[in-house]
Design a protein that fits this description.
Layout: H1 12-18, H2 29-46, H3 53-68, E1 78-82, E2 89-92, E3 96-100, H4 101-104, H5 110-125, H6 128-135, H7 141-152, H8 161-166, H9 171-174, H10 179-195, H11 202-218, H12 225-228, H13 233-245, H14 258-263, E4 269-270, E5 278-280, E6 283-286, E7 291-294, E8 300-303, E9 308-311, E10 318-324, H15 330-341, E11 347-353, E12 356-367, E13 370-381, E14 384-393, H16 394-409, H17 416-420, E15 423-431, H18 438-444, H19 451-457, E16 471-479
Parallel strand pairs: 1-3
Antiparallel strand pairs: 2-3, 4-15, 5-6, 6-7, 8-9, 9-10, 10-14, 11-12, 12-13, 13-14, 15-16
Helix pairs in contact: 3-5, 5-10, 5-11, 10-13, 11-19
Amino acid sequence: MRRLPRPAGRGLAPVLACLLIPACLTLSPAQEISLGQREAAKVAAQMGLVDDPEIRGIVEAVGRKLVQALPLSPYAFEFHVVNMEEPNAFALPGGFVYVSRGLLSLVNREDELAGVLGHEIGHVVARHAATRIARAQGVGLATVLGAVAAAALGGPAAGDVVGSLGQVAGAGYLAAYSREQERESDEIGQDLAARAGYDPAALVDFFVTLEAATRLLHGERNPSFFDSHPSTPERIALARSRAAGLRRAPPSPVAPDRVRFLGHFEGLLVGPDPAEGLVRDGAFLHPDLDFHLRFPAGFEIRNTRAAVVASPPTRDAFLVLTAEADAADARSAAEAFARELGVPFERGGPVNLGGSPGWHGELAAATEQGALRLDVTFIEHAGTVLRLLAGAPSGQFARHAPAFRATWQSFRRLTRLERDGIRELHLRVVRARAGERLEALAARHDNAWDLELLAVANALPRGAILEAGEPVKIAVARPYRGRSRRP
């Protein structure tokens, strides 16, 4: 193994050397690659990938520069962009590295992107990714209901029921790392960035932007990079100190300047993707599948590619809307659901919802946390079968039953006004005039972001005075014209 000099610390060599020592292994590299390939197929199906060649191309190119700086690795790395609104990044065993489109909208320098990708490469070569995925295997219907019941009955998952259910499809990818694993990946990633000619302190700079944007956009409840990569002041301080001691190779960036680097993200979708449906004023609207569903007043609603999840502040009930692409009709979907759960419906029958045929029933399920009563509706609509699963502990069910009924009875097609009012936001890179302020630039280009988010996304102070030609990222609104339907 070839060792490269570095000033101090563990660096890459000991971690990579562990790949060659049987005592360090739980899986062989070949097994990790096979596991990663299987999980990568799930990511594409469950989360969706951004296939724009400009956007993926710059991520791939920066990732390749980092991989070339690895002293040794058995993995053939791949770099992808997931269609995820929230800023996040994760890695799979065997070298599959992902960043979200939400994260890319906040990147301002190539060095920052290199820092994030280097960090995720660190999780792969240190074998953290394999441990995390293995821990999340086997998530199925019983596991989901168990998590719901724990939340409903006041168990340890109560505060996270909405997020955990919405992320069932990506639970293994977005689970939290330990502090030691984060420090190790920071160290590997910063070392790798410096070897590739990037500024190793840029990772810390990006963390500052990301933390401010996460608080501004999502508060504390929605998933972000810091949910799966816990941030602490000590960790940030250590990363900043480590960067100051690293020897950086001569810079040779992929993009010749910042203007052309940001230009790769021109047209990037920011914010919610209407193709996955939108949450508005307590209702869920899906323009491509052409339906409207109103959730109970006061319920917190979260939309992901895998499911739409709603829960009241008391956390003693839940609703989960999903699509069952393989079901032939509503009745057969209901029968398959009961078989999988191992409990027959106590009562049920056909219903008509906004002109769409369906089937509605109730049943009881026993979980480790106690008895759970379920209200389940299957709706044949737009070439698929939708499933609305509502539930509560048996003792609380009667109180929530009217709200459950009102929800599934609210199903209907979109009105013309609702459809025409749907917009999507896309990233644009514009150039400032000499002495121009953000407010003036925003007004001149019809920017759709509020001024605070505009400043944070560009790592600028709110009252910044811009230089002539300075590139600034803005968001512009366009009418939604439709894309391929979610299966």
